[in-house]
Amino acid sequence: MEYKGYVARVQLDEHAGVFHGEVVNIRDVLTLEGSTIEELRQAFEDSIEDYLAFCAERGEAPLTPGIDRTALSLAPLFDDSDEKAYWLSRTPHERLRHVERLRRMNYGARATARLQRVLEIARQA
Prior knowledge:
Mean pLDDT: 78
Structural class: alpha+beta
Strand order of the largest sheet: 1-2-3-4
Low-confidence stretches: none
């Protein structure tokens, strides 16, 4: 889910019949919960609006949505790791879809359709 550049990861608790989620692209902890998709979306938007209002009350700038680059690691192409094998086992479409998801998490509302245009040009060639 995405709202104002903030991205939430959601999981279903089957035993409780509730969706739980957290905002994943800032360091502050923002959580959400709902028993329906509509409730979950509303809880997400409310969490973001409450967070922005809280920051404004304190006179602090809210954290800008983005990827925590300290959590990323790069591996050379010749690395024989399981992660590399996993991504090589995926179709180009799946890999590009994931790249697009990461790009939107990193750039949020500033993300443009540029990557999509490159993909369309590649398909025409």
